[in-house]
Write a structure and sequence with these properties.
Helices cover about 40% and strands about 10% of the residues. By secondary structure, the protein is α/β, with parallel strands linked by helices. Bound molecules: pyridoxal-5'-phosphate.
């Protein structure tokens, strides 16, 4: 900060530090494997290194960069590391990173077409491209939000709007409405329940349907629950099918659930936040079988499509319903072109909107459809390799089918008399302490199960084989089979 002038950083400094930081970023990505995936720190350790009060006068940018390296980096979990195989990974590709740079540089707010025409029109075009890449029906209309949680919240709001109860106008409280019910899998993501509770549906308004041996909703049970609710005076309004559940990436049958929704006139939302992008590969299109029944679908380019967080796309069959649920059009936002353009703020809670379509555009243009399909296919093939290693080892058990690239497994040495849950929980902690890979877990029918997800742009087959070797090494070194 030039203390006496009260101006932004001068252009020559911007160039100098900008180039330095691009160098830093490229070296970081190039040498990322020298870091432990998980930082070895305790709660509060980062805060303790930061001043308690903001600096009164500006600091030299060199010092800011140094502090970033010295204080912030040690507390970073390296999501871009090829050994990050926990949760569902989101890795940022370089074109996506460069897109972010320009998004912040332009810093447009895409609330209205007029507030930045390119932002509105590029969002229309890129969501259209992605729809085509995934083989979704042409009538599906796309909008970009930050996360799948918010996309699904908007989908559930549409379903609520479609009940015709006019909750938008009247509100839920103080009215004698019937109890509303949404149905989803017992393996549905928690964001569905969060959306429901935000919209006043309440946790009691969400019924979780039991799944079959392959962790898919049992359609007959869904049908039974709907009929039972109707008999009890409850109003069913929405069904959520998950394509790629969080624990096992199981695939609910959109077609079977869709037939029920059609018969009962219910909104069908498809949550394919992580796995949906696999449909870029033509042989994977089957995951959306029955998509013609869907009223809405969410997919996250910021997960398995290498766009930096955040970027989630919601598709809706009838955008008018989304608009009806949220549009207010106050005087100060009216423009002379409103009848000819899309003003995206009309289709959601937020007014201000980041220019997320720019990074999506960069990523699609740089890799091309075949390039993205190729990377995802490579992830799936590497996962197959790991699955084979698990299946070929009698001391390991595969705990769920592997439709994509997430493997659920556990260690079960022969003759082991202790608790397998404790053993596997221990094993996972020791693996993660190695720093070389990061795995997460879930529980399936009461069993502690380790999950390994291959969905990073930098994760190659050799990393997957290394992961297997690390697991075996940890078992040997800690004599876990005893
Ligand atoms: C990751 C995920 C979510 C939540 O995504 P956010 O973008 O973090 O809100 C929801 N549903 C499924 C199936 C997911 O995989």
């Amino acid at each position: 900060m030039l203390q006496d002038k009260y101006i932004d950083m001068p252009v020559d400094e911007f160039k100098k530090y900008g180039n330095e930081l691009i160098d830093w970023a490229s070296e970081y990505l190039n040498n990322i494997e020298k870091y432990n995936v998980l930082p070895d720190i305790k709660p509060g350790e980062i805060k303790a290194h930061l001043p308690r009060h903001p600096n009164t006068t500006g600091e030299d940018f060199n010092k800011i960069i140094k502090d970033f390296e010295k204080i912030i980096i040690p507390g970073i979990t390296h999501w871009n590391h090829p050994g990050f195989m926990a949760y569902f990974n989101s890795t940022s590709s370089v074109p996506g990173i460069l897109g972010e740079l320009l998004i912040a540089t332009l810093n447009v707010n895409g609330m209205l077409w007029k507030s930045s025409p390119s932002a509105s029109e590029l969002e229309e075009v890129t969501t259209g491209w992605l729809r085509e890449m995934l083989g979704l029906p042409k009538y599906m209309w796309g909008i970009i939000y930050d996360t799948a949680s918010i996309s699904s919240l908007h989908a559930i709001a549409c379903a609520r709007e479609k009940t015709g109860l006019d909750i938008r106008q009247k509100g839920l409280s103080g009215n004698n409405f019937p109890k509303l019910r949404l149905y989803c899998s017992e393996h549905a993501h928690s964001s569905i329940e969060k959306g429901a509770l935000t919209l006043g549906i309440g946790r009691e308004g969400v019924k979780k349907i039991r799944t079959d041996k392959e962790f898919r909703i049992i359609p007959e049970l869904l049908n039974e629950e709907i009929l039972k609710d109707k008999k009890d005076g409850v109003l069913p309004f929405c069904v959520v099918a998950t394509v790629g559940t969080t624990s096992t990436t199981s695939i609910d049958s959109i077609r079977s659930l869709g037939e029920i929704c059609k018969k009962e006139n219910l909104w069908l939302h498809v949550d394919s936040a992580h796995a949906g992008t696999a449909a870029i590969i033509p042989e994977m299109r089957y995951i959306f079988d029955g998509i013609e029944y869907a009223d809405s679908l969410v997919v996250n380019p910021h997960k398995w499509m290498f766009v930096p967080v955040d970027c989630s796309v919601l598709y809706v069959k009838e955008p008018e319903i989304l608009k009806r649920a949220f549009s207010l059009e106050p005087e100060y936002l009216k423009t002379d072109v409103d009848s000819e353009v899309i003003n995206y703020n009309d289709y959601g809670v937020q007014l201000g909107r980041r220019f997320r379509s720019l990074k999506l555009w960069f990523v699609i243009k740089y890799f091309g459809v075949d390039g993205l399909a190729g990377i995802i296919k490579k992830n799936i093939d590497s996962a197959k390799k790991f699955k084979q290693l698990v299946q070929d080892d009698p001391e390991f058990e595969l705990m769920a089918p592997v439709p994509f690239s997430t493997i659920c497994f556990r260690y079960q040495p022969s003759g082991y008399s202790g608790s397998l849950n404790e053993l596997n929980s221990n094993l996972m902690d020791l693996i993660n302490k190695s720093g070389r890979i990061f795995l997460s877990h879930t529980k399936l029918n009461g069993s502690f199960v380790i999950r390994l997800v291959v969905s990073g742009i930098r994760t190659e087959e050799n990393h997957v084989i290394e992961a297997w070797n690390i697991i075996k090494e940890v078992i040997r070194a800690n004599a876990l089979n005893k």
